[in-house]
Design brief:
The complex is a heterodimer of chains A (268) and B (206).
Chain A lengths: L1 H18 L4 E7 H5 L2 H13 L2 E7 L1 H9 L5 E4 L2 H9 L3 E17 L12 H10 L4 E3 L5 H13 L8 E3 L4 H11 L2 E5 H6 L6 E5 L6 E9 L9 H11 L2 H9 L1 E2 L2 E2 L4 H4 L1
Parallel strand pairs in A: 1-2, 1-3, 5-6, 5-7
Antiparallel strand pairs in A: 3-9, 4-7, 4-8, 4-9, 10-11
Chain B lengths: L1 H32 L5 H11 L4 H12 L14 H37 L4 H11 L1 H17 L2 H7 L9 H11 L2 H25 L1
Helix pairs in contact in B: 1-4, 1-6, 2-4, 3-4, 3-7, 4-5, 4-6, 4-7, 6-9, 8-9
Classes of the chains: A alpha/beta (268), B mainly alpha (206).
Chain lengths: 268, 206
C-alpha cells in the first residue's frame, strides 16, 4: 500500500498546478506584441477586470497559426492578414477583427553602404539591396515579417544572390542582433525595433511606404473545431480589447518614450 | 522576475528528477538483475536515448499533449506539468543505464550469499542501493543537472509564458535576444551557483 501512496502523492504534486490552476486564456501571439511588453501590460489589466489570466505564447506568426490549427490556443493575435483570413475561411477561427497597426521599417548599418536612405519607394530599396554587396538577413521562419519580406521580393522581381541573402531562422530580436553583428540590412516591425536594447551600429534607414503597412488581427479559435477551447473567455477578451477604453490604452502604450501601436477607432 | 524564473526551474527540475528516479530505479534493477532475450537491445536503445536532444523530447511530448494529440483532453500543454514530463523523458534513460550498470556489477558478487540468508530480490536491491547511496545521489545530480540546464523541451512544451513556464534557461534566451545581456549573464551565474551548491552538498555527504 505504502509505495502506491507515495507514487500517488508525487503524481498529485505534478498535476497540482494544472488541476487547481486559475482560470486562464492561452493567446498564441507574435514576438512583436509580447517582447514590447504590450501583452503583459494588457494581461494585467484584463486580470484586474475579469480575474482571467492571459498566458501569451510568443512565436512567429506562422508558428502561432500552425499551433492554433492544432487547437493549442484560445485566441490568435498575429500580423499576416492573408494567412489570418485563410485561417478563418478554413474554419479554424470564428472571425477576424482588426485590432491595431504599425509599419515595417528597413534597418541597416549607420553608414548605409547601399544608400537606401534616399530611396523613393520600397521597391527601389529592394532593387538597391539586390544589386549591392551588403548582406541582407531574412527571418525565414514564416513569421509576419518574413511573409511581408517575401511579398516585397515577389513584387520587385529582384533576386538577391545567396551569398548576400542570409536566413537567420530566428525571432525578430535575434535577427536584429545578427544584423548588428554582421553589419547587414534587415526588415523589422517598428515595435520590435523601438523596444530593442542592443542596436549596436544599426540605424533606421527606410520607412513610410504604403506597402510597409503592418496590421494586427485578433481571432477566437473556433470551438466547433476544438471543443476544449475556452471560447466564452476568448470572446470576452476580444470584446474587452476592442472596447474604446482599451483601444485608447493601446494608443497610449509607450516603449522608450515612443508609441508603438496605433488603433483604428481612435484615429477616425 | 529572476526569482520567479529560478523557482519555476527548481520546481520543474526537482520534480522531474524525482519522477526520473521512480522510473529508473525499478527499471535499472530489473535490467541489472534479470537476463532475458531482448535485454541487449533494450539496453542499447536506452543508451542511445541518453543522447536524445531536448528539442526532440519536447517535440514528442508536444505531439502527445497538444489538443489534437492523444492526451490533449488533459489540457496540460503550456503548463509546468508538460515541462516535467518532457524533462523526465530526457533524463530517465541516462539514469536507468547508470543504475542498471551499477546493479549488474554489484549483484553477482553479493546475490548468492544474500539468497542463502533468505533475502528476497527486493531486500537485495534495497541493500545494494543503500550500500552505494553516494552513487545514487550522483546519478540524481546528473539527471537534475541535465533537466535544469535544458532549453529546447521547456521552450516547446512550456511556451516560455511569463510567470507560468518561463524558467531560467528560457529567460536567458529571451533576454539575450532582446539585448538585455546583463540579466542574461546574472541568470547564467545563478544557474551555475545552484549547480555548484548542490554538487558541493552531495560531495559533503560522501
Amino acid at each position: 500500500m505504502r509505495p502506491i501512496f507515495r507514487y500517488l502523492c508525487i503524481f498529485l504534486l505534478i498535476f497540482y498546478n494544472s488541476s487547481i490552476a486559475k482560470e486562464f486564456l492561452i493567446v498564441q501571439s507574435t514576438t512583436s506584441t509580447a517582447n514590447t511588453g504590450l501583452l503583459e501590460y494588457l494581461g494585467d489589466l484584463f486580470f484586474e477586470d475579469t480575474g482571467i489570466e492571459i498566458r501569451a505564447v510568443a512565436v512567429g506568426t506562422g508558428q502561432a497559426i500552425k499551433n492554433s490549427m492544432r487547437g493549442d490556443g484560445d485566441v490568435l493575435l498575429v500580423h499576416d492578414k492573408i494567412k489570418e483570413l485563410k485561417f478563418v475561411k478554413d474554419g479554424f477561427g470564428v472571425k477576424r477583427h482588426d485590432l491595431m497597426y504599425n509599419d515595417f521599417i528597413f534597418v541597416g548599418p549607420k553608414t548605409d553602404p547601399e544608400n537606401i536612405k534616399k530611396s523613393k519607394t520600397v521597391l527601389e530599396v529592394i532593387d538597391k539591396l539586390s544589386k549591392g554587396k551588403t548582406r541582407f538577413i531574412s527571418r525565414d521562419d514564416n513569421s509576419g515579417t518574413h511573409s511581408k519580406e517575401l511579398k516585397l521580393w515577389k513584387l520587385s522581381k529582384a533576386r538577391l544572390s545567396s551569398d548576400f541573402y542570409i536566413k537567420s531562422g530566428a525571432g525578430m530580436a535575434s535577427t536584429i542582433n545578427m544584423a548588428a553583428e554582421m553589419q547587414a540590412y534587415t526588415i523589422t516591425d517598428r515595435g520590435s525595433w523601438i523596444s530593442h536594447n542592443n542596436k549596436g551600429n544599426l540605424a533606421l534607414l527606410y520607412e513610410n511606404d504604403n506597402l510597409l503597412f503592418n496590421p494586427y488581427g485578433i481571432i477566437a479559435i473556433n470551438p466547433k473545431k476544438f471543443p476544449n477551447t475556452k471560447y466564452n473567455n476568448a470572446k470576452k477578451f476580444i470584446e474587452w480589447i476592442l472596447s474604446k477604453k482599451i483601444q485608447n490604452l493601446i494608443e497610449l502604450f509607450k516603449v522608450n518614450g515612443e508609441q508603438i501601436f496605433f488603433t483604428y477607432k481612435v484615429n477616425k | 522576475m529572476i526569482y520567479e524564473a529560478i523557482s519555476i526551474s527548481l520546481y520543474v527540475s526537482i520534480l522531474s528528477t524525482i519522477l526520473g528516479l521512480l522510473i529508473s530505479i525499478p527499471m535499472g534493477i530489473f535490467l541489472g538483475v534479470k537476463n532475458f532475450y531482448f535485454k541487449k537491445i533494450i539496453l542499447s536503445i536506452l543508451t542511445a536515448l541518453t543522447s536524445i536532444p531536448p528539442v526532440c523530447a519536447g517535440l514528442i511530448v508536444y505531439l502527445m499533449v497538444s489538443r489534437t494529440g492523444p492526451f490533449g483532453w488533459m489540457g496540460i500543454l503550456y503548463t509546468p506539468t508538460a515541462m516535467i514530463i518532457a524533462q523526465t523523458l530526457i533524463i530517465f534513460p541516462i539514469m536507468t543505464t547508470l543504475i542498471a550498470r551499477n546493479i549488474s556489477d554489484d549483484f553477482p558478487v553479493f546475490s548468492d550469499e544474500l539468497y542463502l540468508y533468505g533475502a528476497r530480490l527486493r531486500d537485495i536491491a534495497y541493500l545494494l542501493i543503500k550500500n552505494r547511496i553516494s552513487i545514487y545521489l550522483t546519478i540524481s545530480l546528473i539527471g537534475f543537472g541535465r533537466a535544469i540546464s535544458e532549453y529546447g523541451a521547456a521552450a516547446i512544451v512550456g511556451g516560455s509564458i511569463d510567470h507560468v513556464t518561463r524558467n531560467v534557461t528560457s529567460t536567458i534566451a529571451l533576454e539575450t535576444s532582446k539585448g538585455n545581456l546583463l540579466i542574461a549573464i546574472n541568470l547564467g551565474i545563478i544557474l551555475m551557483t545552484i549547480s555548484f551548491i548542490i554538487s558541493y552538498l552531495i560531495n559533503l555527504k560522501k
